[in-house]
Amino acid sequence: MGGSCRLLGHRGAILPAGRPYQNSLAAFELALRVADGFESDACVSRDGEVFLIHEAKYSDPRCGVQYCAAEHLAPDSAAMLGRRRIDEVDRDTLRRFRLKDGSPIPTLEEALALFVDRPDKLFNIELKGAGAAEAVIPLLASALWGGRIARSSLLVSSFNHGALRAVRHQLPEVPIGALFVAPDQPPTPLFPWDPQSGACYLPLNRESLAEPTLAALAPDFVVIPDSALTPETVEDVVAVLPKARIVAWVFTERREVEGSSLPGRLGEGISPDRLAALIVDDPARAHWTLPVIGAGRG
């Protein structure tokens, strides 16, 4: 991902007006016009197709994980989804669903098509749903080996560090990023309906960074909420994973306000060569970020 800090749109773009709506193709296209790329959430249908929608959020230590896909859907689609998860719905039904702005839920294949002949742009795919790695890897392999997209256009991240192991094994050329929640949040199961999975949201601390699974993976990036972007946590990352660079995202569920606290933290002794990317809700108005850390746009 180069040596300079890059600016990515969070779920494409999360705008106050809601148009285009987050995780829509229009939001992705906006991020590609005004920034260096975007982040999005890979969830898998019951019959194995990868759709991009934000399904689970860790909003508060008291609440744990909440499944929220219905929050992003138009009323009729939300009613059709009901209390089901994305992995409980077949692809044909999901293709009929509409986001709040009336647009369809994009598939991973549709999003990957935006990166054809765009090696200068970055697509951060977060493995969000259970079984996402198994469904995403063949699509990435086909796009890479077919020459449709460049390795430089991809970053695969996940809170499920075990899922990253499959990516590292099968697509060793693709950079991976280990996601963490804030240091003050307790470990919480990622998939509470499947306690045997063992996958958890882990807080960013030295103990979590030093877990054997992560040490064996040697992730290229550590992906953290912007509230954790402090000299102390950067020091922890450097001490345990000295080769990893940091990607920080604005923690929307906590209603962090872009343009206020984050620029201040960037000035608190964060070394620019450690910060690989910032993921912000509105990349069109996030011009304050990169001048603060002295990096040019790629």
Q: What is the N-to-C succession of helices and strands? A: EHEEEEHHHEHEHEEEHHEHEHEH
Number of helices: 11
What number of structural domains do the residues give?
A: 1
User: What's the architecture in CATH terms?
Assistant: Alpha-Beta Barrel
Separation of the first and last Cα atoms = 9 Å
Helix fraction, binned, reads: 25-40%
Structural class: alpha/beta
Mass-distribution shape: globular
Poorly predicted runs of 5 or more residues: 291-298
How are the strands ordered across the major sheet?
1-2-6-7-8-11-12-13
Largest sheet: 8 strands, parallel, barrel
Integer average pLDDT: 88
CATH topology: TIM Barrel
Description:
The protein has one domain (6-53, 105-293): Phosphatidylinositol (PI) phosphodiesterase (TIM Barrel), CATH 3.20.20.190. Helices cover 28% and strands 20% of the residues. It contains eleven helices and 13 strands. The chain has helices spanning 25-34, 75-81, 91-96, 108-113, 132-145, 161-170, 206-209, 212-217, 231-240, 261-266, 289-293, and strands at residues 6-10, 37-44, 50-52, 56-60, 64-67, 122-127, 154-158, 176-179, 188-189, 200-201, 221-225, 245-249, 275-280. The strands form three sheets. Strands 1-2-6-7-8-11-12-13 form an eight-stranded parallel barrel, surrounded by four helices. A two-stranded antiparallel ribbon has the order 4-5. β11 (221-225), α9 (231-240) and β12 form a beta-alpha-beta unit. It is globular and about 50 Å long. It starts with 5 loop residues before the first strand and ends in a 5-residue tail after the last helix. Mean pLDDT is 88; it is low at 291-298.
